[in-house]
Design a protein that fits this description.
six-stranded mixed β-barrel; about 25% helix; Barwin-like endoglucanases; globular; alpha/beta
Length: about 100
């Protein structure tokens, strides 16, 4: 019984570390070409799996967008958003903003 409790405690701790490790913050930009349906909130990320959904937050707003492309390829940027996603996030006039991604 104690071995099971120890195992579950270790597993829970490990999963907590993994979920925290996937959160990141950095610069986001947007791109005008689209590889998705019109109006869909999509994004490009270097490492997250295609089809995964990211929560992107900026200036008190949070959106969920689906990864459908690779990028950005500019140093310091962590995500490229589609125009509909950038519009929903309220970053169109700024162009490049600091976001958090989960």
């Amino acid at each position: 019984m104690q071995a099971q409790t120890t195992f579950l405690l270790c597993l829970t701790s490990f999963l907590a570390v993994i979920s925290v490790a996937q959160a990141e913050s950095g610069l986001a930009s947007y791109y005008s070409y689209a590889k998705a349906g019109r109006g869909e909130l999509t994004c490009a990320h270097r490492t997250r799996p295609f089809g995964s959904v990211l929560k992107v937050s900026y200036s008190g707003r949070t959106i969920e967008c689906r990864v459908n492309d690779r990028g950005p390829f500019i140093r310091g940027r962590i995500v490229d958003l589609s125009v509909p996603a950038a519009r929903a996030l309220g970053m169109m006039s700024a162009g490049v903003v600091r976001v958090s991604v989960e």
